[in-house]
């Protein structure tokens, strides 16, 4: 499972990229607005940091507008793919963009049927939102698992991004469900490193080394 970072914060992207584990970034309008920057500036800077896929969201609600915006966004850097919302207009846009070779990430997916339609339209990625489904008492991970299973059955090439992940267990569960990618918030990825026994182990090794280092 590939590790993407779900953020528009360039410091966070630089830091995690330095770990050598980062394979992509997803942004959305809420994440960019937290940075108080314009979308284009933000994307241009992210593209200087990372070679892997970067998702940028089209904001039009009509097909023509989505296609126009997608061409502009994809023109910023060759690794930018365009997030298109899961609507009828969005499907039509994805279908047109896939014929032009523009990569898409169908976003706000909450069911396997929506994922199937996105794949049929030619989406490069689909993003089931796990945490938002959990929030309303449904199992978000069940959608990831079922979608991966159905895509495998029909050898569908569209990649499943487990999105809206809220804690480290979500990441483990996404991997067990066979998600191709997990897009993970910064605070969650930082938590994934930590284990109290690792900290304790380091402390003990350092203390014991102090006793022998001058021998
Ligand atoms: C994914 O592409 C979205 O940007 C993100 O995962 C949404 O997460 P949220 O439900 O925590 O806002």
Strand order of the largest sheet: 1-2-3-4-5-6-7-8
Overall pLDDT confidence: 98
In terms of DSSP E residues, the strand content is 15-25%
Number of strands: 8
Please tell me about this protein's structure:
- With 215 residues, the protein is α/β, with parallel strands linked by helices.
- The chain has a single domain, classed as Aldolase class I (TIM Barrel, Alpha-Beta Barrel), CATH 3.20.20.70.
- Helix content is 55%, strand content 17%.
- The protein is built from 11 helices and 8 strands.
- Strands 1-2-3-4-5-6-7-8 form an 8-stranded parallel barrel, surrounded by 7 helices.
- The longest helix is centred in the C-terminal third of the chain and has 17 residues.
- The protein is globular and about 75 Å long.
- The mean pLDDT is 98.
- Bound molecules: erythose-4-phosphate.
- Its main location: cytoplasm.
- GO terms for molecular function: aldehyde-lyase activity; transaldolase activity.
- Keywords: Cytoplasm, Pentose shunt, Schiff base, Transferase.
Key terms:
215 residues, alpha/beta, TIM Barrel, 8 strands, binds erythose-4-phosphate, schiff base, TAL/FSA, cytoplasm, Probable transaldolase
Topology, element by element:
Elements: E1 2-6, H1 10-18, E2 24-26, H2 29-35, H3 39-49, E3 54-57, H4 63-76, E4 80-85, H5 88-100, E5 104-109, H6 112-121, E6 125-128, H7 130-135, H8 140-153, E7 159-162, H9 168-177, E8 181-184, H10 186-193, H11 196-212
The structure holds erythose-4-phosphate.
Brief overview:
This protein has 215 residues and is α/β, with parallel strands linked by helices. It has a single domain (2-210), classed as Alpha-Beta Barrel (TIM Barrel).
